[in-house]
Amino acid sequence: MSTTQLLEASFLDGLRMPHYFNGRLLTAEDLRADQAATLARLAWLGKAAGHGVVEGLMASQAGNTAVQVTAGLGLNRAGQVVRLPGQVTLNLVPPSGTAAPGEDAGLFANCTFEPAGNGSGALATGAYLLVAMPVSRLEEKAPLKGLSGSTLPPGCAARWEADGVQFKAIRLSGFGTGGSGAGDKNRQNLLAHWCYGSQALRRLPLDPFTFDDLHGGLAQLAPTELTECDLPLAVFYWQGTKLAFVDAWAARRRPVAPYALDTWQGLLSDNRVAVAQARFLQFQGQLDRLLAVGGAGALVAADHFRYLPPVGYLPIRAPDFLVQVLAEELLSAGSFSKQEALVQKNTLGLARQALAVKGGQTDILAAVRKRIGLDGFDLLKFFGTALPSDVYLIDGESVDFYLQHSWFDEAIDLQVTPSFDVYLVRDVWLRLVGNALLAELDQVLPALGVSFTSRAALRDRVAKAIPPAPPGGKDVPYAVFVKRIAAMVKVPVKAGAEPTGITGEITIWHSYDEVRAEALKKLVEQAAASNPGATIDLVAQTPADLADKLVVAVAAGEGPDLVLAGNDRLGEWAEAGIIQPIDELATPSTAILPIALQSVRLAGQTFGVPQSLSQVALFYNRDKLPEPPATLKELPSVIREFKLPVSLANTPYHAFGFFTAFGGQLMDAQGRCTATEGGFVDAMNYFRQLQEIGVEFVPADVAAERFEHFDSALIVDGPWHIARFRSSHESSLAAAPLPAGPELPARPLLVVDAYFLIANSDNPANAVKLAALLTDVEALATLASEALLVPARMDVPVEDLLDSFRAAAAASTIWPQLPQFDAWWGPFQQMMLSVLDAGANPAGEIKKACAQMDKVNGF
Predict the structure, then answer these.
(1) Who's near 219: CB < 8 A, 6+ residues apart?
(2) Dist CA 318 CA 325 (whole Å)
(3) Which residue(s) pair with 814 in the sheet?
(4) How far, rounded to the nearest angstrom, does the alpha carbon of residue 832 sit from its chain's CA centroid?
């Protein structure tokens, strides 16, 4: 049974259209009424779609006295279509001296206007708004039917009602009143922001309840001047006899959706976003024009801009300080073996000397800057004293993030103490500086007498530190400035002093052994003592139980705030929503090793605070082997020369670095096995060659036991065995990176222990603060000395063994986060046993292992 109740209908001022039926006598009035009704309905649809420029209609300066408008389409506030089918040039000084409004045939009768001065073409000096409006006129002739019985000729009438576009210039008399401080250089910026209402927008926080959408200068124009029929296209400034500039985005807007509510328009309406986007485009367009004029390196922002958008992209020439810092970083990237370091010591010294010398043939900084380009703005001159004391290198994915979050922010006012940050995209500048540096080193080092071999080694080292560019991309030197949000001031609600620092309850789960757990407990106790407002609970789990218990606890809405664990679970936990990103809660320390930070990032987001590193390296007995082999080619010779007993682990984990040293790649981007395409077969054949000279491949625990008892002179293993091996070897124990392959360095799998923030934490901000405290310099120094953990920071002083592992980490493989990676362990363990124990053919076994891995992964 229906529950709908019928109420009354309303036909008040309803639209009326002729009703057609056979036999009805039609008159011209009936057909005109039909046309009017159709136009009214189309106008309603137009209003529903919004108002603004749909496409084209871009206005620009064409000579000293003309404005050019491209073809395009738009909708005015009356809902009418404004269509320009082809490009037009509007002469602001018409030859006739007059400009008459377009004839109207009735289609747009409500859009007629009376021009000032009877249409005189002489414009007074000042700012103007260029608008377009629809017009129509009658064209051609059609014969009339003569009246019955009349002897007079029937005559003719107009055949078509044709629509078109009428342009007009509206004097912006409100601009410049009250002392705007406008001059020839800054007038364009001031006029644009007068249109946007940037000064008026500062009133918003005073009374958000009544602040409306009509705060911009254009909104203050009288409705008889800027009518609902007008579509704004640009502003221009007329200097009596010529144009000073034409600025489209000061007035041009993309279509603005209608706002359905009567209140809070100033905060919520789509017009706020449209104006902000135009504000950004206007700034970038004005920068382009300044660059085109030339001499951008000497320009000062305050001369041309009072207002800047909250976020802007500034094309710049390479700053001295940035080139110096990045060039030094590139020269210091990676690590050499001790033998290579002896050869490279002089080369590095000469390269750094070349960086430092100025004013002569070796002014390499100036040469690098010149190679990057000198067409942009000078960052220091452009901002002057407003430039922050520090600039930041950021990840490229942040650039778009900052811009998209700027639409509801106020402009930066350079006459009020400006507060903004300047960011440089790290990968872009590393490639720009790195490639220019390589080119200059190729010229400078030969002149300094550096040998070809040393130059090649240094060049290879720098080249490997330059991040690869995405396909199809081109690096452009630019900076991003971002308005800084003022810090909040906390006002205590309760009487008495509020606790400072870390506050609230925070629970940490870990699975460390007794020694590491004791050192961690010490750090937590110190953190609790220095933060009396915090209650920190450290809970130990067994390594086998931690992951399963965490999944169950989070699903039940319980569990810890932080979990200290390896990044090998990062992808799984992030996808399952067990952990959450921390980018909005903390900025990572610049002292963290880049590879450690990359290891806790996924899909452009940071999920953890790195603590320590672990990957395999080469342990060796210094008494039996004075220097470790630098390359895999040297290793067999060293074993034979010193008659070394050697036992190596026969697991794919310990062998991974050898696979990469021969150019092997386990998976493609989709997780499909690619081990058959090279590298893996070469590595397994290499292992068989080692077997021929007496090297034994045994289980990892057996290999460790043999090294511990001096039955093996070297071993591939991780830092977790440092305490064990030192107890037997004492001062003879040493470590080094895995020997490099024929073409590539060995890149073993890297595990980074980090504090991960649990998704349902009740105290996320303080949990991340605690993670940062537990990974600062003092904390990691304690873990290094008492638990022999390799710190993930570069500024923590450590003993030689830990330092060797930390240096080797830079050339490691970040633990793959593809779920398909889990399927490689069993098949490739069996492959190694079949080849090394049973003498099976490496190529066939690797093909079999790949097939098994892909089968598990559903390929």
Answers:
(1) 197, 213
(2) 12
(3) 750
(4) 42
Q: How far apart are the first and last CA of the chain?
A: 56
What distance in Å separates the CA atoms of residue 615 and residue 653, rounded to the nearest whole number? 10
**Mean pLDDT of the 167-188 span:** 82
Instruction: Using alpha carbons, select from 577, 565, 543 the residue that is nearest to residue 761.
Output: 577
What residue type is 412 in one-letter code? I
Radius of gyration of the chain, Cα coordinates, nearest whole angstrom: 37
DSSP string, 209-254: TT--S--STGGGS-TTTS-TT-EEEEEEEE-SSSEEEEESTTT---
d(CA 417, CA 335): 45
Task: State how far the alpha carbon of 319 is from the alpha carbons of 360, 377, 378, in Å.
Answer: 19, 10, 7
Alpha-carbon separation of residue 429 from 323, 383, 425 (angstroms): 9, 20, 6
408 residue type, one letter? F
| 848: three-class secondary structure by DSSP | helix
Give the CA angle between residues 416, 420, 425 to the nearest 5°: 155
Which pLDDT tens digit goes with each residue over 27-59?
888 888 888 888 888 888 888 888 999 999 999
Residue with tokens 């309803």: 14
Answer whether 846's CB lies under 8 Å from 676's CB: yes
The C-alpha atoms of residue 306 and residue 185 are separated, in whole angstroms, by 10
Around Cβ 264, how many Cβ atoms within 10 Å? Answer: 15
CA distance 53 to 73: 6
For residue 445, how far is the Cα from the chain centroid? 36
Dist. CA 265–CA 274, nearest whole Å: 13
**What pLDDT, in 10s, does the model give residues 123-176?**
889 999 999 999 888 888 888 776 666 666 777 877 888 889 999 999 998 887
Paired residues of 606 in beta bridges: 601
Say what the alpha-carbon torsion angle 6, 11, 17, 23 is, to the nearest 10 degrees: 70
Q: How far apart are CA 278 and CA 177, in angstroms?
A: 24
At residue 610, does pLDDT exceed 60?
Answer: yes
d(CA 274, CA 257): 9
Tokens representing 594 are 């880049």
Provide the 10 A C-beta neighbour count for residue 6.
5
What does the DSSP assignment read for 703-757? HHHHHHTTS-SEEEE-GGGHHHHHHHHGGGEEEEPPPB-SSS----EEEEEEEEE
Alpha-carbon distances of 837 from 654, 687, 852, rounded to whole Å: 17, 11, 20
In the chain, the percentage of residues whose pLDDT exceeds 70 is: 90
The residues, ordered by sequence, that sit 6+ positions from 612 with a Cβ below 8 Å of its Cβ are 752, 753, 780, 783, 789, 790, 791, 792
CB-hemisphere CA count at 13 Å for 26? Answer: 13
Does residue 20 contact residue 37 with C-beta atoms inside 8 Å? no
**Site of tokens 């984990």:** 653
Q: Tens of pLDDT along 200-243?
A: 888 888 888 877 777 888 988 888 899 999 999 999 999 988 99
**Across the strands, what pairs with 716?**
618
Instruction: State how far Cα 799 lies from the chain centre.
Output: 38
Distance between CA atoms of 716 and 710, rounded to whole angstroms?
Answer: 14
The Cα-based distances of 460 to 430, 604, 630, 657 in angstroms read 15, 28, 15, 19
| Torsions phi, psi for 401 (to 5 deg) | -60, -50
Beta bridge partners of 755: 564, 609
Residue 377 Rama label (left phi>0; alpha psi -120 to 50; beta): beta
